[in-house]
Specification:
239 residues; mainly alpha; Helix Hairpins; 2 domains; 3 strands; binds zinc ion
Length: 239
């Protein structure tokens, strides 16, 4: 019986590993998706700020054209100075020029303000671009790691499944059936170790006499509380 219990103990460990791999298989794609969404958000935010910069540049160009128009008007009015005949006409022309000049200095101020805003935004964008590059790099690295783990898990899955098949045939069939029945009922754990007189499946104490028997690994002994098959693994220390 000792041999069969040992084989079953190995099988239990493999079954837990396989269960873990299966859980990870569910988790990895979700993590990848989350990372990709984060990347997308980051890029969208950057593009939005860049769009704002573009629209400011456009506004600046418009105002510059407007300014040129006003300056053109001033020149034209000034050119008409020599043609003026009366004092009244002269005054009117001066007023006109004054109005155009006021308009152009107002536009000049507006252009200055926009240019300041553009400078500030450009600095922000440069900073953001740097940050984004770092973040993206980190995310790519994370994605690479997840992919690597997935690949390793696939290899481990194949190896362990193969070993499971062999063990399943070697373990005495009634013991194997009992194990599978318990495993199904007890969250994938049909066989547990006992340490310090405590079942490691339900953490309830086992009677001292039973503990002594379990340490022999000679018979099928089941936890009085959770019914799992008990196994002595030398307190988890490697032989
Ligand atoms: Zn128990």
């Amino acid at each position: 019986m000792r041999k069969h219990l040992e084989l079953l103990w190995e099988l239990q460990k493999i079954d837990l590993d396989l269960k873990h791999i299966m859980d990870e298989r569910d988790r990895y794609p979700k993590e990848l998706k989350k990372l990709e969404e984060k990347q997308k958000l980051e890029q969208e935010r950057f593009l939005k700020e860049k769009e704002k910069l573009d629209s400011l540049e456009k506004e600046r160009r418009q105002k510059e054209r407007h300014l040129l128009g006003e300056q053109e008007k001033i020149k034209r009015s000034e050119g008409r100075m020599s043609e003026v005949k009366t004092n009244k006409e002269y005054q009117a022309l001066l007023n006109e020029i004054e109005t155009f000049k006021e308009a152009s200095s107002r536009i000049e101020e507006e252009i200055l303000l926009i240019m300041e805003e553009i400078e500030e935004l450009k600095k922000q964008l440069a900073r953001r671009e740097k940050e984004m590059a770092t973040t993206l790099e980190k995310m790519e690295e994370e994605k690479r790691k997840i992919q690597e783990k997935m690949d390793q898990d696939e290899i481990a899955w194949k190896e362990k499944s193969y070993r499971k098949e062999i063990l399943s045939k070697q373990v005495e069939s009634n013991l194997f059936k009992l194990y599978n029945m318990l495993r199904e009922k007890r969250q994938g754990v049909g066989m547990v170790s006992v340490r310090n007189e405590t079942c490691q499946g339900c953490f309830v104490n086992v009677p001292p006499q039973m503990f002594i028997e379990v340490q022999k690994n000679n018979a099928i002994i089941r936890c009085p509380n959770c019914n799992r098959i008990l196994y002595w693994d030398g307190n988890g220390e490697k032989k």
